[in-house]
Amino acid sequence: MNSSVADTRVPGIVMVKNGLFRVPVRVITYAVLFVGAFLVLLPVFWMVSSSLKYQSEIFVTPPQWFPNPVRWGNYREALTILPFGTYFLNTMKIEVGVIIGALISDTLPAYSFARLRWPGRDMVFYVLLSVLMLPSFVTLVPLFVMWSKLGLVNTFWPLVLPAWFGNPFYIFLVRQFMLTLPIELEDAARIDGAGFLHTFVSIILPQLKPVLAVLVISAFMNVWNDFIHPLIYLSNPKNYTIALGLSAFLDAYSSRWDLLMAASTVTVLPIVIVFLFFQRYFIEGVTLTGIKG
User: Fold this and answer.
1) How do the domains of the chain map onto residue ranges?
2) Nearest to 75 by CA among 279, 258, 278
3) CATH architecture of 73-288
4) What's the pLDDT tens digit per position in 218-272?
5) C-alpha atoms less than 13 angstroms from C-alpha of 42 in its C-beta half-sphere
6) How far from 176 is each of 142, 143, 221, 255, 265, CA to CA, in Å?
């Protein structure tokens, strides 16, 4: 009788103990995440707050966390001192060309490496991966000489065309994701008479939304934040991108931190919008990519 009582009580004790230990672990987890998120978002909050203050209120002691009064005119003044509208359009032209080129030139080779069998495939793939170990700054001078010989300096072509020749990292990323997809659907399509291209477009591409979201966000951010390549190839202010525009703004109005924070806030918004739009696919793509070798 005692043993039966003990048997009925032990699960209850274990459950209570689990209950006692689950709550603190969950609380600690959320506390750590909250602290981490706070530290990451604090500079962003200070940037937005400073963009709505007067210049004299930004560096006061103790800090004034919330603007009072709110000065919305900073945004109008910051975006009209320099032609940020032109810089935005220039950047978006490059974005469209780079993203389309990346989607085409990275998915097709990845499909070839992941699904097709041809002599030397693995060797070519290893050579492709070895390119990742080559620092990009090593090729800056040869590439500039090449584009200069072609007469394309001070145009958008040196910033767009490289994306149409494939990116080793993106090809590797898409290939790894393709390896996680079941091959039975492709076999069924081939039995029905579909060719490789038709199978790729109708069967593979619809399943690549997560990794394509990763590719689009990564390509978008690389172009949006790129400063070195536009600085090298673009000398005409009419062709400046957002990054060059902010640099020119800092050089001309380095003492106007209120306007600089307003311009910086506006330039950050497109990245946030793109990430929020592709967030679900982005997280799924990062989670699934690389499961299979």
Assistant:
1) 2-51, 73-288
2) 258
3) Orthogonal Bundle (1.10)
4) 899 999 999 999 999 999 999 999 999 988 888 887 778 888 888 889 888 888 8
5) 7
6) 31, 30, 22, 48, 36
